[in-house]
Design goal:
Number of domains: 2
Number of strands: 12
Helix content: 25-40%
Structural class: alpha+beta
Strand content: 25-35%
Order of helices and strands: HHEEEEEHEEEHEEEHE
Radius of gyration: 18 Å
Length: 236
Protein backbone atom coordinates (compact mmCIF):
# COMPACT_ATOMS: atom_id res chain seq x y z
CA UNK A 1 0.00 0.00 0.00
CA UNK A 2 1.27 3.47 -0.84
CA UNK A 3 1.92 5.91 2.00
CA UNK A 4 -0.67 8.66 2.46
CA UNK A 5 1.52 11.24 0.80
CA UNK A 6 1.99 9.16 -2.30
CA UNK A 7 -1.65 8.40 -2.94
CA UNK A 8 -2.64 12.02 -2.28
CA UNK A 9 -0.09 13.06 -4.89
CA UNK A 10 -1.39 10.39 -7.27
CA UNK A 11 -4.92 11.71 -6.90
CA UNK A 12 -3.77 15.27 -7.42
CA UNK A 13 -1.96 14.39 -10.63
CA UNK A 14 -4.00 11.56 -12.15
CA UNK A 15 -7.59 12.49 -11.36
CA UNK A 16 -10.18 11.96 -14.01
CA UNK A 17 -9.05 8.66 -15.49
CA UNK A 18 -11.71 6.22 -16.60
CA UNK A 19 -14.54 7.02 -14.21
CA UNK A 20 -17.79 8.90 -14.39
CA UNK A 21 -18.88 11.69 -12.09
CA UNK A 22 -21.56 10.95 -9.51
CA UNK A 23 -23.98 13.82 -9.01
CA UNK A 24 -24.28 15.21 -5.50
CA UNK A 25 -25.90 18.23 -3.88
CA UNK A 26 -22.96 20.62 -3.82
CA UNK A 27 -24.92 23.72 -4.84
CA UNK A 28 -25.20 24.68 -1.16
CA UNK A 29 -21.41 24.92 -0.96
CA UNK A 30 -21.26 27.52 -3.74
CA UNK A 31 -24.32 29.39 -2.49
CA UNK A 32 -23.01 29.61 1.08
CA UNK A 33 -19.57 30.73 -0.11
CA UNK A 34 -21.02 33.48 -2.29
CA UNK A 35 -23.30 34.65 0.52
CA UNK A 36 -20.32 34.80 2.86
CA UNK A 37 -18.68 37.16 0.36
CA UNK A 38 -21.64 39.52 0.44
CA UNK A 39 -23.43 38.35 -2.69
CA UNK A 40 -27.23 38.56 -2.61
CA UNK A 41 -28.22 38.10 -6.27
CA UNK A 42 -27.32 34.41 -6.45
CA UNK A 43 -28.88 32.17 -9.06
CA UNK A 44 -28.96 28.39 -9.38
CA UNK A 45 -30.09 26.98 -12.71
CA UNK A 46 -29.41 24.04 -14.99
CA UNK A 47 -25.97 25.48 -15.79
CA UNK A 48 -24.91 25.76 -12.17
CA UNK A 49 -24.60 28.39 -9.44
CA UNK A 50 -23.73 31.98 -10.31
CA UNK A 51 -24.71 35.62 -10.03
CA UNK A 52 -27.54 37.48 -11.74
CA UNK A 53 -26.29 39.17 -14.89
CA UNK A 54 -23.09 37.13 -14.99
CA UNK A 55 -22.71 34.10 -17.28
CA UNK A 56 -20.17 32.33 -15.05
CA UNK A 57 -21.59 29.13 -13.54
CA UNK A 58 -20.14 26.73 -11.00
CA UNK A 59 -20.89 23.02 -10.66
CA UNK A 60 -19.39 20.23 -8.59
CA UNK A 61 -19.99 16.52 -8.18
CA UNK A 62 -18.31 13.62 -6.41
CA UNK A 63 -16.17 11.86 -9.01
CA UNK A 64 -14.74 9.03 -6.94
CA UNK A 65 -14.60 7.87 -3.33
CA UNK A 66 -12.38 5.15 -1.89
CA UNK A 67 -11.80 3.77 1.58
CA UNK A 68 -8.18 2.77 2.01
CA UNK A 69 -6.74 -0.04 4.10
CA UNK A 70 -5.86 2.38 6.92
CA UNK A 71 -9.54 3.26 7.23
CA UNK A 72 -9.32 6.74 5.77
CA UNK A 73 -11.28 7.96 2.77
CA UNK A 74 -9.99 9.73 -0.31
CA UNK A 75 -12.58 11.57 -2.38
CA UNK A 76 -12.19 13.28 -5.74
CA UNK A 77 -14.56 16.15 -6.44
CA UNK A 78 -15.00 17.28 -10.03
CA UNK A 79 -15.47 21.03 -10.47
CA UNK A 80 -16.75 22.52 -13.72
CA UNK A 81 -16.73 26.29 -14.15
CA UNK A 82 -18.45 27.74 -17.19
CA UNK A 83 -16.90 31.12 -17.99
CA UNK A 84 -18.57 34.09 -19.70
CA UNK A 85 -16.48 33.43 -22.83
CA UNK A 86 -17.95 29.94 -23.08
CA UNK A 87 -14.82 28.06 -22.06
CA UNK A 88 -15.01 25.58 -19.19
CA UNK A 89 -12.52 25.07 -16.40
CA UNK A 90 -12.46 21.43 -15.36
CA UNK A 91 -10.64 20.59 -12.14
CA UNK A 92 -10.44 17.43 -10.08
CA UNK A 93 -9.60 18.06 -6.43
CA UNK A 94 -8.76 15.40 -3.86
CA UNK A 95 -9.71 15.39 -0.19
CA UNK A 96 -8.89 13.05 2.67
CA UNK A 97 -10.70 12.29 5.91
CA UNK A 98 -11.62 9.68 8.49
CA UNK A 99 -15.11 9.58 6.96
CA UNK A 100 -16.38 10.14 3.44
CA UNK A 101 -18.10 13.35 4.57
CA UNK A 102 -14.84 14.67 6.02
CA UNK A 103 -13.02 13.81 2.80
CA UNK A 104 -15.64 15.65 0.73
CA UNK A 105 -15.34 18.70 2.98
CA UNK A 106 -11.55 18.53 2.68
CA UNK A 107 -11.76 18.58 -1.13
CA UNK A 108 -14.08 21.60 -0.96
CA UNK A 109 -11.61 23.33 1.36
CA UNK A 110 -8.78 22.54 -1.07
CA UNK A 111 -10.78 24.13 -3.89
CA UNK A 112 -11.59 27.18 -1.76
CA UNK A 113 -7.98 27.76 -0.73
CA UNK A 114 -6.52 27.36 -4.22
CA UNK A 115 -9.07 28.06 -6.94
CA UNK A 116 -12.29 29.72 -5.83
CA UNK A 117 -10.94 33.22 -5.11
CA UNK A 118 -9.04 33.25 -8.41
CA UNK A 119 -12.18 32.39 -10.40
CA UNK A 120 -14.37 34.73 -8.34
CA UNK A 121 -12.01 37.69 -8.85
CA UNK A 122 -11.32 36.92 -12.48
CA UNK A 123 -14.83 36.23 -13.74
CA UNK A 124 -17.45 37.13 -11.15
CA UNK A 125 -16.46 40.05 -8.90
CA UNK A 126 -13.44 42.16 -9.95
CA UNK A 127 -13.83 44.19 -6.73
CA UNK A 128 -13.12 41.19 -4.48
CA UNK A 129 -10.35 42.31 -2.06
CA UNK A 130 -9.11 38.80 -1.27
CA UNK A 131 -7.34 38.32 -4.62
CA UNK A 132 -5.17 40.55 -6.80
CA UNK A 133 -5.17 41.01 -10.58
CA UNK A 134 -1.69 42.08 -11.65
CA UNK A 135 -0.40 43.28 -15.03
CA UNK A 136 1.63 40.90 -17.16
CA UNK A 137 2.93 41.17 -20.72
CA UNK A 138 2.31 38.24 -23.07
CA UNK A 139 3.21 38.30 -26.77
CA UNK A 140 4.02 42.00 -26.29
CA UNK A 141 0.45 42.70 -25.18
CA UNK A 142 -0.71 43.83 -21.73
CA UNK A 143 -2.77 41.22 -19.88
CA UNK A 144 -3.84 40.56 -16.31
CA UNK A 145 -2.90 37.60 -14.13
CA UNK A 146 -4.44 36.31 -10.90
CA UNK A 147 -2.15 33.89 -9.07
CA UNK A 148 -3.79 31.92 -6.30
CA UNK A 149 -2.06 30.97 -3.08
CA UNK A 150 0.67 28.33 -3.29
CA UNK A 151 -0.98 25.66 -1.20
CA UNK A 152 1.19 22.97 0.41
CA UNK A 153 0.22 19.70 2.00
CA UNK A 154 3.00 18.03 3.92
CA UNK A 155 3.61 15.27 6.42
CA UNK A 156 5.52 17.80 8.52
CA UNK A 157 5.35 21.52 9.14
CA UNK A 158 7.50 23.05 6.43
CA UNK A 159 8.92 26.50 7.06
CA UNK A 160 9.95 27.15 3.46
CA UNK A 161 8.44 30.36 2.05
CA UNK A 162 7.08 29.14 -1.26
CA UNK A 163 6.07 32.68 -2.17
CA UNK A 164 9.70 33.17 -3.17
CA UNK A 165 8.86 31.01 -6.21
CA UNK A 166 6.00 33.23 -7.38
CA UNK A 167 8.17 35.61 -9.51
CA UNK A 168 9.87 32.61 -11.14
CA UNK A 169 6.50 31.00 -11.92
CA UNK A 170 5.23 34.28 -13.37
CA UNK A 171 8.40 34.58 -15.46
CA UNK A 172 7.86 31.09 -16.89
CA UNK A 173 4.25 31.99 -17.76
CA UNK A 174 5.41 35.24 -19.35
CA UNK A 175 7.32 33.24 -21.98
CA UNK A 176 4.16 31.52 -23.23
CA UNK A 177 2.49 32.39 -26.51
CA UNK A 178 -1.22 32.66 -25.76
CA UNK A 179 -4.32 33.79 -27.64
CA UNK A 180 -6.23 36.88 -26.41
CA UNK A 181 -8.92 34.75 -24.72
CA UNK A 182 -8.82 33.99 -20.98
CA UNK A 183 -6.61 31.08 -19.96
CA UNK A 184 -6.11 29.08 -16.79
CA UNK A 185 -3.15 27.17 -15.42
CA UNK A 186 -2.96 24.51 -12.71
CA UNK A 187 0.38 23.58 -11.16
CA UNK A 188 0.85 20.44 -9.06
CA UNK A 189 4.29 19.53 -7.68
CA UNK A 190 4.77 16.36 -5.63
CA UNK A 191 7.97 15.66 -3.69
CA UNK A 192 9.06 12.42 -2.05
CA UNK A 193 12.74 12.18 -1.12
CA UNK A 194 13.28 8.66 -2.46
CA UNK A 195 11.63 9.36 -5.84
CA UNK A 196 11.97 11.96 -8.61
CA UNK A 197 9.49 14.83 -8.25
CA UNK A 198 6.11 14.36 -9.89
CA UNK A 199 5.09 17.51 -11.75
CA UNK A 200 1.96 18.31 -13.73
CA UNK A 201 1.15 21.67 -15.27
CA UNK A 202 -1.98 22.09 -17.33
CA UNK A 203 -3.02 24.97 -19.54
CA UNK A 204 -6.76 25.17 -20.29
CA UNK A 205 -7.26 21.63 -18.89
CA UNK A 206 -4.51 20.11 -21.08
CA UNK A 207 -1.01 19.01 -20.11
CA UNK A 208 1.61 21.56 -21.19
CA UNK A 209 5.02 19.84 -21.52
CA UNK A 210 7.26 22.92 -21.86
CA UNK A 211 5.66 24.75 -18.94
CA UNK A 212 5.81 21.56 -16.89
CA UNK A 213 9.54 21.33 -17.60
CA UNK A 214 10.06 24.97 -16.62
CA UNK A 215 8.17 24.54 -13.35
CA UNK A 216 10.01 21.31 -12.56
CA UNK A 217 13.35 23.14 -12.86
CA UNK A 218 12.47 25.75 -10.24
CA UNK A 219 14.36 25.61 -6.90
CA UNK A 220 11.75 23.62 -4.99
CA UNK A 221 12.65 22.83 -1.37
CA UNK A 222 14.31 19.53 -0.56
CA UNK A 223 13.40 17.47 2.49
CA UNK A 224 13.03 14.03 3.97
CA UNK A 225 9.24 14.00 3.98
CA UNK A 226 6.67 14.19 1.23
CA UNK A 227 4.88 17.36 0.27
CA UNK A 228 2.47 18.35 -2.47
CA UNK A 229 2.07 21.88 -3.82
CA UNK A 230 -0.82 23.24 -5.83
CA UNK A 231 -1.41 26.63 -7.44
CA UNK A 232 -4.20 27.83 -9.70
CA UNK A 233 -3.71 30.81 -12.05
CA UNK A 234 -5.98 32.76 -14.39
CA UNK A 235 -4.86 35.02 -17.23
CA UNK A 236 -7.31 37.56 -18.58
Amino acid sequence: MMRAGLWIIALGLCAGCGKEARNTKTEAFFVDWLKAHGETNIVSDSKGVGLTGNATRLKASIYDSKKHADGRYVVETEFRIRMPSGGEIVEFVAGIGDTEAQAINDSLLNFTLTTFHVVYKGFMNPADPHQTLRPITLNGQPRQIAMGDIYMRSGKTNQTDLNLLRPKIEDAIGRLTLSPQPHWIKIVYGHVKTNPPTVSVTLDNEEHPSLTAAIKDLPWPEGDDFYMVKQFIVIK
